[in-house]
Design brief:
The complex is a heterodimer of chains A (384) and B (305). By secondary structure, chain A is an alpha/beta fold. Chain A has an eight-stranded mixed beta sheet, sandwiched between helices. Chain A is elongated and about 95 Å long. In chain B, helix 4 packs across helix 7 and helix 9 runs antiparallel to helix 10. Chain B is 53% helix and 16% strand. Chain B has a domain of 213 residues: Rossmann fold. In chain B, the strands form two sheets. Chain B has an eight-stranded mixed beta sheet, with helices on both faces. A two-stranded antiparallel ribbon of chain B has the order 5-6. Chain B is of the alpha/beta class and 305 residues long. Chain B starts with a helix and ends with a helix. Chain B is built from 14 helices and ten strands. Classes of the chains: A alpha/beta (384), B alpha/beta (305). Chains A and B meet through helix 7, helix 10, helix 11, helix 12 and helix 13 of A and helix 4, helix 5, helix 6, helix 10 and helix 11 of B.
């Protein structure tokens, strides 16, 4: 099997996808590190990294700051990268505001939107907002050509479709003809300088107003008016983002753990990608329990007792040491069997997709040395 | 907090990061309460329902179904919750159809500040506080298996956010009702589930602080998948240096102790940082999600509470 670096050769945008808690951030950082070691100028764009990992990457706060990882930190870890590694933490609100400023026809229009009460709630609270902005940021960084490779650590979406269709969902909110029709009378009143004082009219509007109150409808009208004329720009950009993600420039790496539920989620994600015409470039299974029995040696009680005796170790305690060792071996062998079964299920279902299996490490990974240790399992033999 | 105190609430909310075992804990709490003769409803507000499957039953879907005597579950989804809720307010099916079953309504669901969350929380609230049968409340206890953190907090603060934007109309009135139930320590308890790992532990600490800041009555923190130490440091040193015959046993023991050390470490971190009782739930090696596993978790929780 080809090492991951080879599998991803020539890709300029690498998206790590998968459910929450499977080690996506760590994997994304490990990939970025590998590319940097290989001579690339790489950026890892992360959403919500563990504090210690963030600290070790030199990320102290959000704010879309591209931060170069101090070469001294590489030296400390005994690494000499031929390229550079940078990191950035995505700031949702900031990215939205940037996008609005960029797309607005006039500074006044931008200010009107940024000041709208509904925009402030919507931009950060809308389902799919984080996903949309992550992709937007990747597109922006990619187009700037400041980096050879951008690795995206995607939000821990529980649903693959939320991620892939985030842009169209959000665009639908920004420009919805049906709603414009309904809000028409209020929008017209607004344009004639009546300061949106018109009462909700029409059956639909009156019914909706009974539900939410008419203040909300007024805010909504103001919001839609502020956005008028900007929609095309947004749509155009979303189309280009999507084109990038489905191009040969981009690769999707599926990250999972061997738990049945996350494997199920990974398979679902794989299918959703395929439905959108995107091929999964590789799958990485983190925290796979290694089987202690691979060392051979005694694994039953009488044999363990004998082995302890031979090694002159006192079989003491309650329950006796031999019992506890036997139980622990059994427990871990059982976990290893379960993991192996799940990894095989994944391998069979994702027939032909390179699969890398990273064992459960003794400690949490929170520095460059730890990330480099992971890279050892992303080589030719896929961690087996 | 004693178990009877937790299970005698009207509404118990179970929150935490994704993958920490919220559904397992929700199901185990429900089982413990049902065994005490309480009539329990588990409301799952997540993308995919799991609780029915734990008890070997087909998914309940959006209709309440009995899983075991006294134990029921329902999957709360935005579209159906919206319909139920709107019908309660609007009363007329035809009017509902005109107003809500048109392209504008889809937009409306997406645009109104967290309307999807509002109607889902509204449904849970209704079951907990207004769902009556022959003059008395139908459920002794409603357990809400809430969305993952971040989103989970958004979910619970939805009434607060909504009321900042809108202060009139039937929805606003109901939001006040929801808010007061969610703030009442006699009727409601908000629990957190986490794992002995860095990200989940940090997130639990942040969630604990945020929940307290918003005034949600604190329930216990369940520290799931807890590894208890099995070997003394001396035993471990001897076995790992015990030669080729003990290589496998030594690695197993070493793995176990490194996970036990992480469990103890994060338990300490959490005890220092979190102001609520901490209940370790042992790791179960079977890793099966059947009724037996839930039963074990329920017993572990019962003995710890």
């Amino acid at each position: 099997m080809k090492p991951l670096l080879e599998v991803l050769r020539g890709r300029r945008v690498i998206c790590c996808v998968g459910s929450g808690g499977v080690g996506k951030t760590t994997t994304a950082a490990a990939i970025a590190l590998r590319e940097a070691m290989d001579g690339k100028r790489t950026l890892v764009l992360t959403i919500d990294p563990a504090r210690r990992l963030a600290n070790s990457l030199g990320l102290h706060e959000m704010g879309n700051e591209e931060t170069r990882i101090d070469p001294a930190m590489f030296a400390n870890a005994g690494l000499t990268p031929r390229g550079e590694m940078w990191a950035m933490m995505l700031d949702l609100k900031h990215t939205w505001d940037e996008l609005v400023r960029r797309q607005a026809r006039t500074p006044q229009q931008a200010e009107a939107i940024l000041a709208n009460k509904l925009y402030q709630t919507l931009s950060t609270a809308m389902a799919g907002s984080l996903e949309y902005m992550a992709m937007e940021k990747v597109y922006e960084v990619h187009s700037s050509r400041r980096f050879d490779v951008v690795v995206l650590d995607t939000p821990p979406t529980s649903n693959a479709l939320d991620f892939l269709h985030a842009a169209s969902r959000i665009l639908d909110v920004l420009d919805n003809n049906a709603m414009k029709l309904v809000l028409g009378p209020m929008m017209k009143a607004g344009k004639f300088g009546l300061k949106l004082l018109a009462a909700p009219s029409g059956l639909v509007l009156r019914t909706l107003a009974r539900f939410t109150g008419s203040d909300f409808l007024r805010d909504l009208t103001g919001f839609m008016m502020a956005f008028e004329g900007m929609y095309e720009g947004f749509k155009d950009r979303a189309t280009r983002v999507k084109a990038l993600l489905t191009s040969r420039d981009a690769a999707f790496v599926l990250v999972t753990s061997p738990q049945p539920l996350t494997i199920q989620e990974a398979l679902f994600f794989h299918k959703a990608l395929a439905d959108d015409g995107i091929q999964t470039a590789a799958v990485i299974v983190n925290r796979v329990q290694r089987d202690p029995r691979r060392h051979g040696g005694p694994d039953n009680l009488p044999a363990l007792r004998e082995a302890l005796q031979l090694a002159q170790i006192k079989d003491a305690g309650a329950p006796p040491l031999s019992d506890r060792l036997c139980q622990t071996l059994t427990d871990q062998a059982a976990l290893a069997d379960l993991d192996r079964r799940e990894v095989e299920r994944l391998r069979t279902t994702l027939h032909g997709v390179p699969l890398f299996s990273v064992p459960r490490l003794r400690k949490d990974v929170h520095d460059l040395a730890g990330l480099w240790q992971i890279d050892g399992y992303l080589g030719e033999n896929g961690g087996d | 907090m004693s178990e009877s105190a937790l299970l005698s609430r009207r509404l118990v909310v179970v929150t935490g990061k994704g993958g920490t075992g919220k559904s397992t804990v929700s199901a185990a709490l429900a089982l413990a309460a049902a065994r005490r003769g309480k009539k329990v409803l588990v409301c799952e507000v997540v993308a995919r329902e799991r609780v029915a499957d734990f008890f070997g039953k087909p998914p309940s879907g959006t209709r309440i179904r009995e899983l075991l005597p006294n134990l029921y579950s329902v999957h709360v989804r935005p579209r159906e919750a919206m319909r139920e809720y709107a019908l309660m307010t609007i009363k007329f099916e035809t009017l509902y159809k005109i107003a809500f079953e048109n392209p504008a309504a889809r937009y409306f669901l997406a645009a109104a500040p967290s309307l999807a969350e509002i109607v889902m929380l509204g449904k849970v609230w209704w079951h907990a506080a207004h769902d009556t049968e022959r003059g008395r409340l139908r459920w002794d206890l409603v357990i809400l298996d809430a969305p993952a953190t971040g989103h989970g907090l958004t979910f619970l603060t939805v009434p607060e956010v909504f009321l900042r934007l809108v202060n009139e109309g039937p929805l606003a009135r109901d939001m006040h009702g929801m808010q007061s139930l969610l703030a009442d320590p006699k009727q409601c308890s908000v629990c957190v589930v986490t794992l002995p790992e860095e990200m989940p532990a940090n997130e639990a600490i942040e969630l604990d602080a945020a929940l307290r800041q918003h005034g949600f009555p604190p329930g216990p923190l369940f520290l799931n998948a807890y590894f208890a130490s099995r070997f003394t440091p001396q035993e471990l040193a001897q076995v790992t240096r015990g030669g080729p015959l003990l290589l496998a046993a030594g690695e197993a023991a070493d793995n176990h102790e490194s996970r036990a050390a992480l469990s103890a470490h994060y338990e300490g971190v959490l005890r220092n940082a979190v102001q609520r009782p901490i209940l370790p739930v042992p790791f179960f090696f079977e890793r099966s999600f059947g009724a037996q596993a839930i039963d074990k978790v329920a017993h572990a929780i019962e003995s710890a509470l």
